[in-house]
Amino acid sequence: MADIIRLLPDHVANQIAAGEVVQRPASVVKELLENAIDAQSTDIKLIVKDGGKTLVQVVDNGMGMSDTDARLSFERHATSKIQKAEDLFNLHTKGFRGEALASIAAIAHVEMMTRTGEDEVGTHIKIEGSKIISQEVAVVPKGTSMMVKNLFFNIPARRNFLKSDQVEFRHIVDEFHRVALAHPQISFSFYNNGSDVFNLPGNDFKKRIVQIFGRKTHEKLVPVNEETNVVRISGYIQKPEFAKKSRGEQFFFANNRFIKSPYLHHAVLGAFEGLIRPGTHPGYFICLEVDPATIDINIHPTKTEVKFDDEHTLYAYLKSTIKHSLGQFNVAPSLDFDKDQNLETPYDFKDKAVSLPSISVDADFNPFEKSRAPKESGYSRQPSAKGWETMYQGLERKFPQQDIGILEMESEGINSSIFGSTADTVDTITTTFQLRKKYIISTIKSGMLIINQSRAHQRVLYEGFLRNITIKEAVSQQLLFPLTLNFTRGEISILMEIQESLSAVGFVFGDITSETVEVKGVPVVVTESEVQMVMEQLISDFQMEVAEDSFSQVDMLAKTLAKTLSVKTGEVLDQRSQIGLVNDLFACKESALSPFNKRTYTTITESDIDRKFI
Ligand code: ADP
Ligand code: MG
Known about the structure:
Layout (H helix, E strand, L loop, with lengths): L9 H12 L3 H14 L4 E7 L5 E6 L6 H6 L27 H8 L1 E7 L6 E7 L2 E8 L4 E7 L6 H6 L3 H18 L4 E6 L2 E6 L4 H9 L7 E7 L4 E7 L11 E5 L2 E3 L2 H11 L11 E6 L5 E2 L10 E2 L2 H21 L9 H4 L37 H9 L17 E2 L23 E3 L3 E6 L2 E6 H19 L4 E11 L2 H17 L2 E5 L3 E8 L7 H14 L5 H16 L9 H13 L13 E5 H7 L2
Parallel strand pairs: 1-7, 11-13, 16-17
Antiparallel strand pairs: 1-2, 2-6, 3-4, 3-6, 4-5, 7-8, 9-10, 10-13, 11-12, 14-15, 17-18, 18-19, 19-23, 20-22, 21-22
This protein binds adenosine-5'-diphosphate (ADP) and magnesium ion.
């Protein structure tokens, strides 16, 4: 047989390697930013267009390249950062594989301009799909400008695989956050489609966090500091009460490199245990410094997964350090000595003149007035119980009025009178009982109906929201005082994406800035105190899962709202709410399943019961 093994031509090998290094425009951003940092730049500019699909450009003021190096830099395994295998154990640079530029040049139109400090003139290279188109002498500033255009121009399949511009932009923002946080002393600016997104002068770590995540972040941070023989731990954790529904602000850096580590994440969660509400996530910005010889960054081309020599010790140190910080903060809330007065003063107040405080009294206020009295316990879900009734106002659906009061069945000691009911069919339910704050029990002709209260309510809300969205006639309640909620830029960009659908379900927005959203109205089923929670849940769901078209966006929105706002297991429902819920469930198009395809109810027939008595 003839020999059949052949070496792949370079440009093919490069395309294959590119598959690993460049998944999406954000990967290009990461590689270019890291190269700029390795070149000892102090000022780095990132410019993107159309979610990075049309253009990603990074301009730095670093050391630049000679004309030979400029050409060599696009060769595979060409790097100035290591020379021999041992160097891998003493890395002080982000890059070392010499793969990024070769990979990028294989799948995009690349233009590089670069000049070193010693040279009078620089180099301008154009390269497309690994082919050098031109290399010329050029008069350019010191440093390097890398322009990457039309990503995946020669791999249509990969290009089609990219998500919408907004989604790709969001990935870029995430990548930018990571790099900018890891290098607070470097100035960064970031432009998207011609407008500036970030302008971050060099700073310390805490101020960089505040620059990125907004002024409000400042008061949330608790410092973490510990030095041991294996690791130096520094950074900040967010106070437990600011734990969020979304897990946006969780960052580990190892030797100034953003890393992902489920194992160390677990250590942090362990330290927060018992201090945060279930279903919420603590924020943290933690820097680990270890001896470069004890960390292996070589296990994946994107270099976010790393291996520490002694992970167990690290785990234990991290957990106890954070616990210690949390404890200290509880005892003495302001033990942070690097407080900056400028950050302490709310922005709006800095330039305001001092004015005398005045007292205004609400003359009509009567603390004993019925409607102002605190909610009676046992009616814990009153506001939204009322909510889902109002949702159907105008539809002329009457709930059977009964005045039985709260009949709650807490134990399994089932009272035989339940079965002596007059109700016969599902659509005329008049008697119900709540079992273990989880199920609603009622009788039907053939026997017994058991409804999962939470799933049933999810179905009712879900269909209600979908209806609102499709007929675009949401019932919205105006807030007396608009709420101003704080978010990060990333979160705001997600909100902007779904803003139209949110308006369709009844949210009314006022001013939206880069850090705040003014909410003027909410859907009737949402109470004021729930607004923040609902928005956080929405953001977190949309962060996790990307809605591809407007239909799935609307569907996701309705699902998230239904999940967040539904009555939960463990909530006591009064008789009217129980009956209302059951009737509403059976008025739904698909009453048997929750929006998440779980059964909402089951029946037990008389013969099932009879069999138990044999
Ligand atoms: P690596 O970063 O792993 O060395 P790259 O393909 O990213 O590999 O870059 C190849 C080489 O090109 C680098 O080792 C460096 O010498 C040079 N280089 C890349 N970008 C820059 C830059 N912005 N400024 C100066 N030199 C650069
Ligand atoms: Mg590199």
